[in-house]
Amino acid sequence: MMHKILAGLYAVLLHAAIIFLMVRGTDLWITADQNDCAAASFSSIQAVTIDERAVEIEMARLQEEKQQQLELEKQRTEQAEQLKKEQQELAELEQAQQEKDAVLNEQQQQLESLTAQQQAAQAELTRLKAEAAQLLADQVAGEKAVKELKQQQDQEQAKLAKNRLAAQQAEKQRKAEEREQKRQAQREKAAKERQHKKELADKRAKEKAAQRAKAKAERERKAEQARQKRKEAEQKRKAEAERQRREKADAARRAAEAKATAAQQAQQQARVQQLIQQTAIRIKQRVQSRWIRPVGGVDNLSCIIQIQLIPGGGVGSTRIIQSSGNTAFDNSATTAVRRASPLPIPAEVFDHFRTFNFKFTPR
């Protein structure tokens, strides 16, 4: 399918390229003949019209070929679906045939079973007929024996008296044997009862032993659980004690570190404060050394100047925020500050003096 689509696209692109070349050649031909006469121009226009018509015809043909390809693909798809449907129906028919064969096999087995049953019934009927024939023969023989017995009764009457004594003795013997059998049966019964009682006793003993073993195992299990719980509790207690000990040690260590840090910070602050005071004194001395006394009495005057520094201690700007009341004095003070630039400020405390108020006095 993909190869066919690519082939169709390739054909369309090829035809488009041919049409482009045809149109391009026509344009060039028209451009070359623009300076000809009116009749030649008319012929060129007519040629262009004919070429455009050819392009339209070619495009229509390509469209028709494309439509035919689509219809062909559609027919192939329908044929494939039809084939798939037929294959599915064939599979269903095969499944139905297999089910039918299974039913036939089951019916064949049932038929064979019925045949075997019929054969067995026929054999049983043959046996019963044979038994009936044997019974009939026995009945005939019995009747004959009765006749013979009746003939012998007279002979046996004489023997009865003789045999009566023997019969009585035999009866006594039989009764004695019966009594002995009864006693033997009673003895066996008693023995069986004793055996049964013994088995019951053994069973009860085993059950009691099993119960005692189970109870012992349960006690041991509970004891083991108790030991395990005590062991876990002891481990937890030790772990908790260790945790508390570590927490106390950590707290003591942190407290010591905090104390040492505080002491260091205090020392650092004291040192910085001392350095600030020393720097302020040096700034004052430097500015006073650059000060030029103005005319007039200014010994008791003072002013406050706001100074902004730049990196390196240079004076960036100055501003009087509290005047002395004497403009000449104020100007001489600001001039002295600028002449003292850069001010002697250590880098460690420069941020403190980046913008600060400086009180200037002559002394």
Q: Main attributes?
A:
elongated, 82% helix, 363 residues, Fusion Protein Consisting Of Minor Coat Protein, Glycine Rich Linker, Tola, And A His Tag, Chain: A, Domain 2
Descriptive overview:
The protein has 363 residues and is mostly helical. It is built from three helices and three strands; from the N terminus they run ααββαβ. The chain has a three-stranded antiparallel beta sheet, covered by helices on one side. A hairpin with a 3-residue loop joins strand 1 and strand 2. Helix 1 packs across helix 2 and helix 2 packs across helix 3.
Give the topology.
Blueprint: H1 2-32, H2 38-289, E1 303-310, E2 314-322, H3 327-339, E3 355-360
Order of helices and strands: HHEEHE
The number of helical runs is 3
Shape: elongated
What's the β-strand tally? 3
Distance between the termini: 108 Å
From the structure provided, what is the oligomeric state, counting identical versus distinct chains? single chain
Classify the beta-strand content into a percent band: 5-15%
Radius of gyration: 69 Å
Structural class, please?
mainly alpha
Major β-sheet, in short?
3 strands, antiparallel
Strand order of the largest sheet: 2-1-3
